[in-house]
Amino acid sequence: MVLKSFSDGDVSTLKMLLADKIFQGFQKAIDQRNVEQNKLITNLISIEKSEIISAMTLENNASIVIKFVSKQINYICDKDEKIIEGKKDEISEITDIWTFKKDLTSPNPNWIINS
């Protein structure tokens, strides 16, 4: 959801999934793309591996750090649909480490990406 929302510029979905500090960085990148009239295309081909690196609870907060290895196609087009970065047919292996946090007392079932 995060990859698709970022690619689509869907800030309302991102706001629900990301901690404020992380959201601000995503918002800034989306705003810059909009100013430049560029479009990010992201195709998630597969998640090759997901691995829990650590998990902990502290008082009423849970935290899980997960390493994801995925295959993706990423490229940026300008306003005329000309590719200005990346390639349509180039599959890249991407490694991300994300920290998910949740207030265990909250009725909201969502885990928020914190870093």
Most strands sheet: 5 strands, antiparallel
Uncertain stretches of 5 or more adjacent residues: none
Distance between the termini: 16 Å
Radius of gyration: 16 Å
The SSE order reads HHHEEEEE
Q: Helix content range of the residues, please?
A: 25-40%
**Coarse structural class:** alpha+beta
Q: Beta-sheet strand percentage?
A: over 45%
Strand elements, count: 5
Number of helical elements: 3
Q: Mean pLDDT across all residues, rounded?
A: 96
- The dominant shape is flat
Please, could you describe this protein's structure?
- With 115 residues, the chain is of the alpha+beta class.
- The chain has helices at 2-8, 11-17, 20-36; strands spanning 39-58, 61-77, 83-86, 92-103, 112-113.
- Strands 1, 2, 3, 4 and 5 form a 5-stranded antiparallel β-sheet that branches.
- The longest helix has 17 residues, at 20-36.
- The radius of gyration is 16 Å and the shape is flat.
Please outline what is shown here.
The chain has three helices and five strands. It is an alpha+beta fold and 115 residues long.
Topology overview:
Blueprint: H1 2-8, H2 11-17, H3 20-36, E1 39-58, E2 61-77, E3 83-86, E4 92-103, E5 112-113
Antiparallel strand pairs: 1-2, 2-3, 2-4, 4-5
Helix pairs in contact: 2-3
Structural key phrases:
115 residues, alpha+beta, five-stranded antiparallel β-sheet
